Amino acid sequence: MFRKGLQVVLNQPIEGKKDRFEQGLKGTIVEEFDLPHGKSYRVQFVDGRVARFPEELMKQAVDVLE
Q1: Domain-wise residue ranges, the chain
Q2: What is the enclosing helix (H) or strand (E) of 28?
Q3: Does 7-64 carry CATH code 2.30.30?
Q4: pLDDT digit string (tens) for 29-50?
Q5: Cβ atoms within 10 A of the Cβ of 62, count?
């Protein structure tokens, strides 16, 4: 479903450990992690911030643009 290089947009705000990411913020998946408890993805946002989100959160809060 998600893979490195996809452009995404948040369809709801996400409250992270350090930052809040607002609805409508666009970014690109730059890294994919296969962890024992599931996959997670690192997203580089257009405002310069980077965050790693678990796959379940990505399914709920992220829409793929391309």
Answers
A1: 7-64
A2: strand 26-35
A3: yes
A4: 999 999 999 999 999 999 999 9
A5: 23
